[in-house]
Specification:
The chain has 224 residues and is of the alpha+beta class. The chain has 2 domains: 3-139, Ribosomal Protein S5, domain 2 (2-Layer Sandwich), CATH 3.30.230; 145-222, 2-Layer Sandwich (Alpha-Beta Plaits). Helices cover 29% and strands 34% of the residues. It has 5 helices and 11 strands, in the order βββαββαβαβαβββαβ. It has helices at 39-52, 85-93, 120-138, 159-168, 193-206, and strands at residues 10-14, 18-24, 27-35, 58-65, 71-75, 106-113, 141-154, 172-173, 177-178, 183-190, 214-222. The strands form 2 sheets. Strands 1, 7, 8, 9, 10 and 11 form a 6-stranded antiparallel sheet that branches. A 5-stranded antiparallel sheet has the order 2-3-6-4-5, sandwiched between helices. α2 packs parallel to α3 (120-138). The longest helix is centred in the middle third of the chain and has 19 residues, at 120-138. It is elongated. It starts with 9 loop residues before the first strand and ends with a strand.
Length: 224
Amino acid sequence: MDSNDSTATRYTVPSADSVHEVEIKRSRFITYLYRVESEVQAREAIAALRKTHFDARHHCSAFILGADRMTQRSNDDGEPSGTAGIPMLDALAKRDTPDGSPLSDILAVVVRYFGGIKLGAGGLVRAYSDSVSQALDAATLIPRQRLRIFTLDADHALAPRYENDLRAAGYQMEATVWEAEHAVLHLGIEDTDATAAQLAEFIATLTSGAGTARPTATKWVDIA
């Protein structure tokens, strides 16, 4: 995803796919959470679960995509309209995350094995919403941030100190390239002009005015 695709600079994603099951009035609700980055990927995962759980009555789904969460879809898959997909989508969209950033690039699929007892419309809404919420409680969620990448040239002898000081100051350091004449440090910052200005001041102090950090690109990274 390119930085030009959105105005958001940070959101939250699942760190890995997961599954969580609850039983409500003899019905089994099996919630699968997937990390997805496109509608095609989401629909492929749903289709795969239909094959795995071919004997289940319902395979309800909801997903949110993109840093700005512009793509949101849900499907009741045979449950009464509005009792499954939308409550699932609401559970994803309104999820509180550790750093307060919105949850996205996530697919939830709830596979229901009917247990013979009807839950009614209100019961279904609660069941599907709670199933997704409990699955999110059990999942590991991590921030994903858009970084502005800079390079900094440094003498071979000075590069290790520069790298250590930058890392200690909280900058995201990537692999240093050791060229014949000098080393090239690569670092990432939050993709804002204010953070870039702070970096420029830090580099000026670090190098006694001799070094300049040059912007090269932007990219999205998971912050573990």
